[in-house]
Specification:
Strand content: under 5%
Structural class: mainly alpha
Radius of gyration: 20 Å
Distance between the termini: 17 Å
Largest sheet: none
Order of helices and strands: HHHHHHHHHH
Helix content: over 70%
């Protein structure tokens, strides 16, 4: 629904509503993706161990895989931001800008991939970090161009919101990591202990994040719960 709404506001010349809708969608994306990447980073080894570590797939292989997962996680929020920002350009009948920016991001990805993956010998982790860096570059440049194109986007409140969500996500991730240490992830094959500890870690992280979001009165949490309850939330009050 984002693209039709933004297109409607552009056709009416109502850029206040355009900014409001775009900002809310971006905040909602950050509210859901930042804790997800924090959880993936904190539980990267347990997740890879439970999913893959059996037979010839050793604990060392699970560690290598988890390092790649962490490398991709650093850019996950930017990938989500691109899914929100590109439609804003499409709503203004501008399909060229996202493509041009994506091209330069591709060049950056290739250059950083060579430097990090081969020159600095970071191997698979370097390639993942290069991908994340290019995604961040792509998103930040697009949002900068969008601000120049449409006027003030009020980046300050968005940055403060992102920092708050990052802080509480880090606390939830730290709790998940602490609980995960109660299992022996180096043990071969899949065990009931691994599964139960991983589930407990994830559940604790989700609970802590929800409680902290409510404690800090983050409006997006109310919107998410309304969607889960299949109610129609009022975006204008967020």
């Amino acid at each position: 629904m984002l693209l039709p709404n933004l297109s409607s506001y552009v056709s009416k010349g109502d850029y206040d509503k355009f900014h409001e809708t775009y900002t809310f969608t971006l905040r909602l994306m950050l509210f859901t993706l930042i804790p997800a990447l924090a959880g993936l980073i904190a539980l990267s080894v347990p997740i890879c161990s439970v999913l893959y570590q059996r037979g010839e797939f050793t604990y060392e292989a699970a560690l290598f895989t988890s390092q790649t997962l962490v490398g991709y996680c650093f850019g996950l929020w930017a990938v989500g931001g691109l899914r929100v920002t590109a439609p804003a350009f499409y709503a203004m009948q501008d399909t060229k800008t996202p493509v041009v920016v994506a091209f330069f991001a591709f060049i950056l990805n290739a250059a950083l991939g060579y430097i990090l993956g081969f020159t600095l010998d970071l191997s698979h982790t370097g390639l993942a970090l290069a991908n994340s860096a290019s995604s961040i570059f792509n998103f930040l440049l697009l949002i900068y161009l969008l601000e120049r194109r449409t006027g003030e986007l009020k980046a300050g409140p968005i940055i403060k919101f992102a920092l708050l969500v990052t802080a509480i996500s880090a606390l939830a991730g730290a709790a998940a990591w602490k609980i995960s240490t109660y299992a022996d992830w180096a043990a071969p094959d899949l065990t009931l202990e691994k599964v139960l500890v991983l589930i407990a870690s994830m559940a604790a992280a989700v609970l802590i994040y929800i409680l902290l979001a409510k404690a800090f009165k983050i409006d997006e949490s109310r919107y998410v719960f309304a969607v889960l309850k299949r109610k129609r939330p009022n975006i204008n009050n967020s």
